[in-house]
Amino acid sequence: MSCVRVWWLAVLAACGHAGEPEPMAAPVAATPATIVGTLPDGHVASVAIDARGTIAGVAAATAPAAAQQWLSTPVIDSHVHLSYWPVAARLAAAGVEGVVDLASPEAALADVGTQPIHMLAAGPMLTRDGGYPLASWGADGYGTGCHDAACVTATVDRLAREGAGVIKIAGDDDGLPAELYPTAVAAAHAHHLRVAAHELSEAGARVAGQAGVDILAHTPVEPLSAATIALWRGRAVISTLAAFGGGDAAVANLRALRAAGCTVLYGTDLGNSRDAGPSADEIALLERAGLDAAAITDAMTTVPAAFWGFQFALAPRAEATFLVLDRDPRRDPRAFLQPAAVYVRGTQLAR
Questions:
Q1: Residues 268/78, Cβ–Cβ less than 8 Å
Q2: Which end of the chain is less packed: N or C, by CB atoms within 10 Å?
């Protein structure tokens, strides 16, 4: 077992499982309403919410400088485990309205549409028989073991039928055997699903890149070679820097992957990390990796929305799910840490 895996298991042991899901945050204001603020493009506008919880219109407006506020589409966390730590209501109240759950028991796929936030889910990750995470934190169904191509194809087909929005591979030294990666990728792509791989090592990132995997589920923590980085041009990486300690190698990897043309998606590994909302630590580490305020804001909002297909927009007929902030996040993304107000389907949520 690699030193990377031992470190990760120690983190999981420290976190442990959690209790029952929390109740939905209570609404404190009814629709309809009109909110005035500065849009991401810099124009001041009034956003009218109708009784159906959608945006009825967006019109030019003026606002006194002292009362100015900024409007933003919500935060999207591209790596969570809400079966492991069921805090969807807390996320919603904090302004995280879209998530991608990258390992849960298969039965949890039936609950995706019942969550108080928008969710895509992978269900259990593909691994080898008895492999990661089956012998540790994921013994309760967070992985499914396969030893041949037929099993991999059948598993991907079943998860797709059950509503999986992405397929996840457990990689590195005790995950899915490397020779089965191409089968998993082909099966997922046949269902128009992307594949994310848990790869913390140089070897794992190289195997996944060569097999056509679409997304690094974490920024690897071992230094990546130039050849491996080049494999990920045009694909995506989910940051999760804080979840693994924010080491220099991981930060350098994210910087290099981004420079090579890899799309950066903000993600926290929620469940194994414990910020039930936007993460100050992750924002700080994204800055260390060379992303400026506008790039961090994009990685938290518009980029994952487009990548995953979340329909958040400050536009007529869109769902009225947005944030009111006390300063411009494209100048300071820490504005997301304490939104002045959170609207979900036209209703303001209490924090």
A1: no
A2: N
What pLDDT score was predicted for residue 65?
Answer: 58
Where do the H-state alpha helices sit in the chain? 3-15, 88-94, 149-161, 181-190, 202-211, 226-231, 248-259, 280-288, 293-300, 302-308
**Number of residues assigned to the chain:** 351
What is the rounded distance in angstroms from the CA atom of residue 133 to the CA atom of residue 9? 9
Q: What is the pLDDT of residues 32-69, one digit of tens each?
A: 899 999 999 999 999 999 999 999 999 999 877 556 89
Q: What share of the chain is helix, strand, coil (3-state, %, to 5)?
A: 35, 20, 45
Say how far residue 149 (Cα) sits from the centre of its chain.
Answer: 29
How far apart CA 35 and CA 45 sit, in angstroms, is 8
| Count of beta carbons in the 10 Å neighbourhood of residue 16 | 9
Sign of CA dihedral 316, 323, 308, 256: positive
Task: Specify which residues 196 forms β-bridges with.
Answer: 168, 215
* Residues of the chain predicted below pLDDT 70: 1-31, 65-67
Q: Are 337 and 75 in contact (CB under 8 A)?
A: no
Taking alpha carbons only, the member of 28, 11, 8 closest to residue 350 is: 28
